Amino acid sequence: EDFLTLIFKAMMKDALNSSHPVSSAVQSSEQIEEMFDALSYIKGASLLLMLKHYLTKDVFQAGIEVYLHNHSYGTAQSGDLWDSMNEITNGTLDVKKMMETWIVHKGFPLVTVVRKGKTISVQQEKFLYRVEPENWTSDASYLWHIPLTYITNRCNFTHCTNAYLLHQKKGT
């Protein structure tokens, strides 16, 4: 419950145009300090939970183990964790490409789902809670790779979860 409260508080901040990406290039130590705020940590934790759910617990854990093994007693760069996950998925999913859309964009997407008969249409757009005119920038080019999971009436939640990666503005 406490974690959900933190997530929703972070989402409120991240939904403002004055938000910042989880990862960005920095030029000074002051900029580094600005990046390590509650928003970055909570959004980062949420993104890892999203990835764990999409990849499954076992695949995610194996990717973490590869990452820790490859970088023990050394340094790591921002893409190294995603590279380790790619290693585990054997190229079936480009985790790095998917996750970079989440860490380099500020904010998050709003996904609209419409059902017509047996067809489900999904569409993404950047969600803005409140437009602040002094900080307004056009984010029309924002595009996330959104892992969606769903079940059908032919199975139950624990045994038959399907996955779909929305990597365009619209999908069916």
TrEMBL record:
One of its GO terms (cellular component) is plasma membrane. It comes from Chloropsis cyanopogon. Residues 7-102 form the Peptidase M1 membrane alanine aminopeptidase domain. Keywords: Aminopeptidase, Hydrolase, Protease. The gene is Lnpep. GO terms for molecular function: metalloaminopeptidase activity; peptide binding; zinc ion binding. This is LCAP aminopeptidase. GO terms for biological process: peptide catabolic process; proteolysis; regulation of blood pressure. The keyword NAD does not apply. InterPro entries: Peptidase_M1_aminopeptidases (IPR050344), Peptidase_M1_dom (IPR014782), Peptidase_M4/M1_CTD_sf (IPR027268). It comes from the Eukaryota.
